[in-house]
Amino acid sequence: MADPEKASDNGAWLDEHFPLHKAVFQNDISRINEILTTTCLPKINLDQMDTHGNTALHLAAMLGNIEAAKLLLEHGANVGLKNNDGWKSLHEAISYGDRKMIGLLLSSHKKQSHRSLTSKLPEIQNHLESLNDFYMEIRWEFQTWIPLLSRVMPSDTFKVYKRGSKLRVDFTLTDFNESIISWTRGDMSLLFDPGAPKSYQTLLLNNKDEVYQRVRDKNRHLNDEIDLLMGCDIISSHISTRPIRFVRAKGWFMNDKSYNIGEYKADLFNIKELCLITRKRREHLSQEDLRKNRELNKAFSSGKLPPDDGSSDDDDKNHHRASLSPPPKPEFAWAEYLRLPDGPDSHLGSRKKRRLQILKSKECWRCVRTFHSQPINCWTFLKF
C-alpha cells in the first residue's frame, strides 16, 4: 500500500505541472481564462499532455465542458492530437454525445487541417519542381469473393500529368446511383497548382460540359456530418512504422527481382513489419444504431445499397440526431486521476468504454519499386 503522505506530495507535484488541465477538470472558467490570458504567468503549452497523454482539450471533451473547449480553441489548441489510447478530442466528444461540442471540434479540426495543408504548400511545390516531368496511369478496382460480381464493381484509370509544380489527374468515374453496380461515367479533370492564387489552387473540370468549379471546404453539411459521426463506430487507425524494414524481393532462384518499366529499370523491395493498428469504440451507439449498421454492411456485401427513404433530403434540425444524455461525472478527484494507471479506470468519459473498445492489428504486405536514376530514401517514402 502506497504511503499517503508520499502520494499526496506526488499529487501536489503533478498539480504544479498541469494547471490548465486542473482548471478544465474542475470546469473553472475564470481560472482557465486567467491562465490563457495573463502575461505575468509562465507561458502555458496548450498541447501539453498529462500522465495519460490527454491534452486540456481532451479533458474538456470527455467532461462535456464546452465553454472551456471554446476558450482553448480560441487560443489555438490542437484538435488532432491523440492520447495514450490513440484517441483524439473529437473522438471523445462523439463518445460524450453533445452535438454542440462535436460540431465545435469538427469545425475546428477542418480549419486546422486546412491551415496545416496550406503551410506545407511551399514544400510540396519545391518537391514537385525537383522531380522530372512525367505522365503515368494508375488503375484501381474493387474486388470481392462473390462470383462474377467483381466484373461489375467500379474501376477506373487515373491519368496523371506532371509539369513543373503543376498536376493534372484525368478520370471518368464521377458518381453512383442507388445501386452499387450502377455508376455514372464522365470526362473529368482535377487540376492542382500550389503556386496559383488561393481560390484557384485546386479546380475540378467537367471537360464534356466545359465548366469548372473551385474546390473549397465549407461547413454547409456540418449537421449531416455530425449525424454520421454519432451513428457510426468511433475508429482510430494508424500505421506502425517503427519496426519497418525494406527487404529485396527474391525470385525463384533467390536472385534479386527487377522489372523494366518503360525505359527504367526498377528494383523490387518488400516492406516488412508494416502494421495497420485499428481501434474501435461504440459505447455511444444504441441497439437500433447497431442493427442499422449491420444491415448496411450486409447490403454492401450483397452488392446493393439499401433504398433511400428520403429522410436525409430535409435539412430541418428536427430530423437530426439529438444529443445523448451525459455520462456520470468521474468519481475520483483531480490528484487521484493523475496517479491512476492508463486504462478504462482512468477514462473520464462514458463508463461503457470498458467493454466496448476493440483493438485489431494486421500486418500489411506491401512492395515498392525504386529506380536507379530516381532514388528515394526511407524518410521521403514515409513522409509522403
Automatic annotation (TrEMBL):
One of its GO terms (molecular function) is signaling receptor binding. It is found in: Endoplasmic reticulum membrane. It comes from Meloidogyne enterolobii. InterPro entries: ANKRD13, ANKRD13_C, Ankyrin_rpt, Ankyrin_rpt-contain_sf. Residues 168-314 form the Ankyrin repeat domain. The keyword Repeat applies. This is Ankyrin repeat domain-containing protein. SUPFAM superfamilies: Ankyrin repeat (SSF48403). ANK repeats lie at residues 52-84. SMART domains: ANK. The lineage of its organism: Eukaryota, Metazoa, Ecdysozoa, Nematoda, Chromadorea. It comes from the Eukaryota. Acts as a molecular chaperone for G protein-coupled receptors, regulating their biogenesis and exit from the ER. Gene3D superfamilies: Ankyrin repeat-containing domain. It holds the Pfam family ANKRD13_C. One of its GO terms (biological process) is protein retention in ER lumen.
